Amino acid sequence: MRRFRLARLALASAGVLATMLLAASASAQIPKAIRDFGAPVYPAFEGWYENDDGTATVLIGFFNSNQSETLEIPIGEQNHFSPGPEDRGQPTTFPPGRSWGVLTIEVPRDFDGELSWTLVGNDQPVTVPFHLRAAYFVEPFKDQSNNNEPPTIRFAAAGTPFSGPPVGIAHTMTAPVGSAVALPVWLSDVTPDRNVRENPFRRRPPQVLRWHKLRGPGDVEFDEPEQEFEDAGDHNPTTTITFEAAGEYWLRAEVLDSTGDGGSGFQCCWTSAVVQVTVTE
Asked: Is 259 helix (H, G, I), strand (E, B) or coil?
């Protein structure tokens, strides 16, 4: 699949602009400028990849074009997929800026149609299609140029390791409303042969852990929403989390290596895992 690398380079270089251009074929106008408030949210088609079982997976993120406004968009008319189930595990909380690798959808390898995700943020609808066209093929589990692979995250010392894009719920837990709870994780990564993605003028930490709210009825406070590490070895950080309201929440743990957000647009090498939390009174 290396023959697709030039096409992927062109797509990655376009970054957010490519995502916005995709939306031009949909039901919303392209914004002329980033605003603090009042702008839409754009679904982002980040590519697709093959699975060992013969299926394929579509990789999806989003871009909230507001600089200061987090939007809550519930599943339904303003936040849905089509055709088929309107709820495919997408977020309902959209913080400002670009969020990579938030959602995956498995489809048959011979899928030749399109799925679409519609978001209505600030009364501005955007619909973006997803498909399996060759130019959008990505390899999120290994960079063939330097043998780099995504970091792994575990939720117990001897627990199951997760790496690459998110698939389902990786961990479940309970928490009392209004009280801080500790969530430890175990991280591991390896240093690639060489990092062709590294920019000498923009050095990135070897490993970064970030926490995000994906869904839930109330605010979530992370005592350390982002932690950086000075090496790519094994780490056991703990994040303390407080939930303001009872209900079900989804959190996303995002682990980056030195390639940075979205693997600098090449989709390798980073990891996301979803934690489901039941918060009780």
From this structure: coil
User: What tens-digit pLDDT sequence spans the chain (281 residues)?
Assistant: 433 333 343 333 334 344 444 443 343 344 445 678 999 999 999 999 999 999 999 999 999 999 999 999 999 999 999 999 999 999 999 999 999 999 999 999 999 999 999 999 999 999 999 999 999 999 999 888 788 899 999 999 999 999 999 999 999 999 999 999 999 999 998 776 665 455 554 567 889 999 999 999 999 999 999 999 988 779 999 999 999 999 999 999 999 988 878 766 677 889 999 999 999 99
Cis before 125? omega within 30: no
Is residue 134 within a helix (H) or strand (E), and if so which, with residue range? none
Instruction: Calculate the CA 15 to chain-centre distance.
Output: 14
Residue found by looking up tokens 């390791």 in the block: 161
For the chain, how big is the Rg over CA atoms in Å?
Answer: 18
C-beta separation of 20 from 42 below 8 A: yes
| Residue ranges covered by each domain of the chain | 2-136, 152-280
Structure tokens at 206: 């070897």
Cβ proximity of 117 and 35 under 8 Å: no
50 CB neighbour count, 10 Å cutoff: 14
Measure the CA–CA gap between 249 and 215, rounded to whole angstroms: 5
Nearest to 251 by CA among 62, 91, 97: 91
Taking the C-alpha atoms of residue 269 and residue 89, their distance in angstroms, rounded to an integer, is 22
Quote the pTM value. 0.84
Contact in structure between 214 and 274 (CB atoms under 8 Å)? yes
> Which architecture, in CATH terms, is 152-280?
Sandwich (2.60)
